[in-house]
Amino acid sequence: MWAFVQKNKNDIIYLSLLLFSVLIGPYYRKLKTEEAKKWAGTILGIALIIIVSGYSAIHPICSALIGVIIIKVTTIRYCHVATFFFMFAYLFFFRFADKFGFKLSSGQTNLIQMIIVLRVIGVAFEMNGSWLAVVNPKKKGNEEISKINDRDEEFIELINPNIIDLVHYSFNYIGLLTGPYYRYRTFNDFFHLPYSKYVDCLGFTINTLKIVPLYISLYLAFSHIWPLEYVLTEDHNNRSFLYRMMYPWVLFAAFRQRIYSGMTLAESVCTSAGLGAYPVQGRNRTGHGPTVGYMKLKNMSDEEAKKAEYDFKTVESMEVWGCETVVTLRDSMKVWNKAVQYWVAMVVYKRFPIKPLKIHAALFVSVIWHGYHAGYFFCIYFCPFYLMAEDIYYKLYYKEATGLKKKIIGFIMWFLRSHSESYQAAAFLLLTFDRIWIYYSSVYHYWYGVWLAFLVIGHGLYHLHKTNRPKKPRETENIEVSEKLK
């Protein structure tokens, strides 16, 4: 038992601090004034950084303060670009500190630094995006589309916090240890709107936390029975090919339980404090918050707020059931770490100027945000290749299928999706190229060959299907057109 505690000391401390952050929420929520709440949240956040990081706390604290200064010193037109490059440059320095004569920080400090990067860059892009929306409003056509879809514009008011509020946002303890990422607008609403007073924070927190013991138990069981390091041993290589092929399933299962428990605890920190609560009629989205009628919600009276029904979708990172059951990798990506995916979409994908390279830019930023090990590239950057094949089979066989046929095809696609994720997750967990090569060599790098075969066969089947599809006679088309005109 003591050996286990010593081995996992940092994780136990981190878990304890997450639980402490959950427990402190009701007391934090009851603080009377806005200023008291802001300063208490900031001081508590900095204290957590120091407890977790020790002397390494200088990295997240200094990088955030310099990032905030850059935001305010540069003009709002360019603050997002300057902040983006500085924060990722500092992240590079932070992870290669030993090359510059400094001590490398712990994995837990790395997680805090990653969240700081999201917050500081995110608020800079919010400020710039809101300024562009106010100074250069959208064309009428886009406004009409927005009205048809009954959705708010991305930015409907100017966001330009002062330097003190930027510091408060950067260091507030809620979501600082593991996330989730939330916008500055969400943070600001927490102090100025009455929702946290009327939402059932305790009920949401208990409901969120009740499954965490199961996740932790499954993680401990899986990682003990099927340890990661076993794939690098000669004993593993002497096992049957089927055993070696399926071993990543249990590795990825253990990894998922760890992520589920961490993310669920992080969400509970938000629900306990009341941050991220919005009325359900706002059709709230992870990371973003209300997507419909935001200004109307903002002007809601206390009486209306008392009667409203709330959710915490704004700070929901994982849809666990979806992660386990969705059929396609594309759908799986939508329900996995949604808050970070929202950040990547808003900061990189939508704002990158070269359209054909948008997806590559988003994937590259996602990779270097996670780290610089080869495993992150192997895991994240190979997703599009599987998606290319998956999309073909989805359109050909699953999309229009019904009944038992749909269930059978769905199960096959689910198995292939799960197997692909597990194969990629092995690289993510093994990290370095030499370790990845040892495992992938033990299974003859077979999955890349399977991917290529799927893609080639899929393209052939698609073109065959397109060629054999019956075409409407020209006369029939002309009759249909004339009937429509009438």
TrEMBL record:
PANTHER family: LYSOPHOSPHOLIPID ACYLTRANSFERASE 7 (PTHR13906:SF16), PORCUPINE (PTHR13906)
GO cellular component: membrane; mitochondria-associated endoplasmic reticulum membrane contact site
Membrane topology (UniProt): Multi-pass membrane protein
Record's keyword terms, sorted: Acyltransferase, Membrane, Transferase, Transmembrane, Transmembrane helix
InterPro entries tied to this protein: LPLAT_7/PORCN-like, MBOAT_fam
Protein location: Membrane
Pfam families noted in UniProt: MBOAT
Transmembrane segments: 12-28, 40-58, 64-93, 114-134, 361-389, 446-464
Protein's name according to its UniProt entry: Lysophospholipid acyltransferase 7
Family stated for the protein in its record: Belongs to the membrane-bound acyltransferase family.
GO biological process: lipid modification; phosphatidylinositol biosynthetic process
GO MF annotation list: lysophospholipid acyltransferase activity
Record flagged with keyword Transmembrane: yes
